[in-house]
Design brief:
Helix content: 10-25%
Number of helices: 1
Shape: globular
CATH class: Alpha Beta
Number of domains: 1
Distance between the termini: 39 Å
Radius of gyration: 11 Å
Protein name: Sulfur carrier protein ThiS
Structural class: mainly beta
Order of helices and strands: EEHEEE
Strand order of the largest sheet: 2-1-5-3-4
Largest sheet: 5 strands, mixed
Length: 66
Amino acid sequence: MQIWLNDEAYSPKTASDLLALVSELSLPEQSVAIALNGEIIPRSQWQSTPLTEGVQVAMFQAIAGG
């Protein structure tokens, strides 16, 4: 399967949902926001939101600073 992750083609190794994708990418779950096809997905729905062929995933990490 191939998805679009931050506008780049990506083939998940084992991830089949958003929570698994965050884990596969070794990202800190609490500092990531995810949009799927342009719609923000609440963290509570990551595990129940499957990855599908060609889906557009945008991930944003919180950055401290000022």
